[in-house]
Specification:
The structure holds two protein chains of two kinds.
Chain A (H helix, E strand, L loop, with lengths): L1 E7 L9 E2 L4 E7 L4 E5 L7 H9 L15 H15 L12
Chain B lengths: L18 E11 L2 E10 L4 E16 L6 E9 L4 E10 L7 E5 L4 E3 L4 E8 L5 E14 L1
The chains are: A alpha+beta, B mainly beta.
């Protein structure tokens, strides 16, 4: 599922720009804006986040979402990923832009 | 004589709920900071083999000022980072460059390990084809 994501990182070799996800493929990006379109495995996207992404389609890397990505969905997605990978204390906190 | 044993051979890894993940980034892009183009993480209860890792850098349009460019694939377990394939090339304002590298090993990825493909281009101006690709087979540990 292709999702417009906020990136983290500082653009150095030790801390490159990337979305905060365990598995993804970069489709296109604008790192100066800190975001990009990312292909995320469907199994890694919780149903409520998938519904949100489908409800608010995005066509470019600049136009803001009509509503900000809710914190409740951010928490839901983080919990979904933690369950999916089950790697102890390892956590991801991806953010839809 | 009757021979009995409780030992049962495990199926080969590719018969243990194996799944193929092909990660690929290929684009003509201009100068860019260090960017992770893809990542694959091995979940609990799984292992993975990185069966192929390939990187390529090719000039499309010449830069106006030159510096280093990198295209590389590396694994990380959160502590140690290992490079599987790497290009580090200093640019040219006059010569079109092509360089590639391929991993020669089959790296085993344990739960929690990541495989990452990344690029960096510190030139000024110009564009280059960047290819960063790998195949991982994950299976029940």
């Amino acid at each position: 599922m292709i999702i417009r994501m906020q990136f983290i990182g500082s653009g150095t070799r030790d801390d490159p720009f990337h979305p905060d996800l365990p598995s993804f493929t970069n489709v296109s990006d604008a790192v100066v804006l800190g975001r990009g379109f990312v292909d995320v495995p469907s199994s890694d996207v919780s149903p409520d986040v998938a519904a949100f992404v489908q409800a608010y389609p995005t066509v470019d890397l600049t136009t803001p979402l009509p509503v900000p990505f809710p914190q409740s969905l951010a928490n839901s997605w983080a919990e979904h990923l933690a369950r999916q990978y089950d790697l102890g204390n390892v956590r991801w906190h991806p953010v839809v832009f | 004589m009757k021979i009995t044993s409780y030992a049962v051979a495990r199926p080969a890894y590719y018969d243990r709920n194996a799944a193929r993940t092909a990660q690929r980034y290929a684009a003509d892009i201009g100068p860019n900071s260090f960017v992770v183009r893809w990542t694959a993480t091995i979940a609990a209860g799984k292992k993975g083999f990185c069966e192929n890792a390939f990187v390529l850098f090719r000039t499309v349009t010449l830069p106006t000022a030159v510096s280093w460019s990198d295209v590389y694939i590396y694994s990380s377990d959160g502590v140690t980072s290992l490079t599987l394939a790497n290009i580090g090339i200093y640019g040219s304002t006059t010569v079109y460059q092509t360089i590639q590298d391929k991993s020669t090993v089959q790296l085993t990825l344990y739960p929690g390990a990541t495989l990452n493909g990344a690029t960096n281009n510190q030139n000024t101006g110009g564009t280059a084809t960047n290819v960063v690709e790998a195949q991982i087979t994950t299976f029940d540990a």
